UniProtKB/TrEMBL annotation:
Gene Ontology MF annotations: cysteine-type deubiquitinase activity
Keyword Hydrolase: yes
Keyword Repressor: no
InterPro entries: Papain-like_cys_pep_sf, Peptidase_C19_UCH, Ub_carboxyl-term_hydrolase, USP
EC number(s) on file: 3.4.19.12
Reaction(s) the record says it catalyses: Thiol-dependent hydrolysis of ester, thioester, amide, peptide and isopeptide bonds formed by the C-terminal Gly of ubiquitin (a 76-residue protein attached to proteins as an intracellular targeting signal)
Organism per entry: Platysteira castanea
SUPFAM superfamilies: Cysteine proteinases (SSF54001)
Residues covered by the USP domain: 1-203
Keywords: Hydrolase
Protein known as: ubiquitinyl hydrolase 1
Top enzyme class: hydrolase
GO biological process entries: protein deubiquitination
Length: 213
């Protein structure tokens, strides 16, 4: 991927001083190319509120909304101890397998918080072509992915447990694994879980006419 980084002046500085700093080469946008092992997807802040029956409402977000981080134009601010940066990311090559890590956990000096937002995603036919620049699109014949594994975190950050959903490629059936217990699961039930890590397989030429699970 390409990573574009732009240093920001300190927010407490006067406007004139900020304007002057932005003219310096140190504050101009820089681009580097980097390989990646997985893509971290950031969840929006979860505003938990109650409905008329005093039941907690769990917020939801579409997968494509959090994938927009990698469209080459979406900017996000990153803060360090001393400096602030704006970064944007652009995918330049799509691998046979993609790993998504949905950032549910935030750690501070005192405790770990978990974001319970549900990510709405299809099981098959996730096309990432629109996240590639035009010149990169020309080099990619296949840009569609199908989910093959989904790791779920249940419960509190410090006391939770994990479940794994795995596609059996030979039969097209989904199974849920927890410890030594293996059970069937319907694909539509997978999308209701608090997905944490996902593995997607690129659909190749001989698979385009096959129907997914």
């Amino acid at each position: 991927m390409r990573i574009f980084t732009k240093k920001l002046p300190h927010p407490d500085l006067p406007a004139e001083e900020k304007a002057q700093l932005l003219q310096n080469s140190e504050y101009q946008e820089r681009m580097v190319e980097s390989t990646f092992l997985y893509l971290t997807l950031d969840l929006p802040t979860a505003p938990l509120y109650k409905d008329e029956k005093e039941q907690l409402i769990i917020p939801q977000v579409p997968l494509f909304s959090i994938l927009a981080k990698f469209n080459g134009s979406t900017e996000k601010e990153y803060k360090t101890y001393k400096e602030n940066f704006l970064k944007r990311f652009q995918l330049t090559r799509l691998p046979p397998y993609l790993i998504f890590c949905i950032k549910r956990f935030t750690k501070n000096n005192f405790f770990v918080e978990k974001n319970p937002t549900i990510v709405n995603f299809p099981i098959t036919n996730v096309d990432l072509r629109e996240y590639l620049s035009e010149e990169v699109q020309a080099a990619h014949t296949h840009t569609t992915y199908d989910l093959i594994a989904n790791i779920v975190h249940d419960g509190k950050p410090s006391e939770g447990s994990y479940r794994i959903h795995v596609l059996h490629h030979g039969t097209g059936k989904w199974y849920e694994l927890q410890d030594l217990q293996v059970t069937d699961i319907l694909p539509q039930m997978i999308t209701l879980s608090e997905a944490y890590i996902q593995i997607w397989k690129r659909r190749e030429e001989d698979e385009t006419n096959q129907q997914g699970a």
